[in-house]
Amino acid sequence: MVRFGIVALLGEGLYFLLYGLFLTLTGSTSSTLAIAGGICILVNAYSHSRLTFRVRFSKRLLLGYMQIQLFGFGLAFFSGLALEQAGTGKWWIALVTYALWSTASFILTRVLYRTQGDRPTSDLANHPQDTVNPHAD
User: Fold this and answer.
1) Which residues contact 51 (CB under 8 A, 6 or more apart)?
2) pLDDT number for residue 23
3) What values do phi and psi take at 99, rounded to 5?
4) Which of these, 78, 72, 77, lies nearest to 33 by C-alpha position?
5) 3, 47 in Cβ contact below 8 A?
6) Which among 72, 82, 19, 22 is positioned nearest to 48, based on CA atoms?
7) Per-residue pLDDT for 136 more than 60?
8) Are 22 and 36 in contact (CB under 8 A)?
9) How confident is the model at residue 117, as a pLDDT?
10) Got the DSSP string for 49-84?
11) Angle, CA of 113, 93 and 33, to the nearest 5°
12) Over 80: is that where the pLDDT of 19 sits?
C-alpha cells in the first residue's frame, strides 16, 4: 500500500505538472486532460508494475492497464466536460477528475496486477503435487 501511494503521488505530481504546462500552452481543459493523461498512463503502467506490485512488465499487463486507464480517462474526460459546462473552475475540474480517475484506477489496477502476480511462473505449479514428484512421501 505504501509503494502504491508513493508511485501514485509521483504519478499525480507529474500529471498536475503536465496539466499546468499544457493548460498554459493550449488553454483547453479537454486537450490538457488528453495530453497529460496519455503521458501519465504510460509512465504509471510501468511504475506500478515494477515498483508497486513488483511484477514483470509485459505487453499483456500494459494492455490491461491501458483498458483500465481508458475507462478512467473516459470517466474523467466526460466529467470534466460536464463540470466545464456547469462553470466549474479549471483547477476544481482537475481535482475532481483526479479523484474519479485515481479511485477507479486503484481498484481496477489492484485487481489486474494481483491476478497477474498470482499466476504461476512454471507449468509445474499447475499440476497437483503428486504428479509433480510421484515418488515423494
Assistant:
1) 3, 6, 7
2) 92
3) -60, -45
4) 77
5) no
6) 72
7) no
8) yes
9) 58
10) IIIIS-----HHHHHHHHHHHHHHHHHHHHHHHHHH
11) 60
12) yes
Query: What cell numbers appear for 23 in the block?
Result: 493548460
Predicted confidence at residue 133, as pLDDT, reads 44
Is 113 within 8 Å of 55 (Cβ atoms)?
yes
Specify the length of the chain in residues.
Answer: 137
Spatial distance between the Cα atoms of 95 and 107, rounded to a whole number of angstroms: 18
Angle at 79 between CA 70 and CA 33, to 5 degrees: 60
What is the maximal distance between C-alpha atoms in the chain? 73
- How much is the pTM? 0.57
DSSP category for residue 95 = H
Q: What is the pLDDT of residue 105?
A: 81
Tens of pLDDT, residues 21-42: 999 998 888 888 889 988 988 8
- What's the distance, Cα to Cα, between the start and end of the chain in Å? 40
- For 62, the grid coordinates are 500494459
Mean pLDDT, the chain, as a whole number? 80
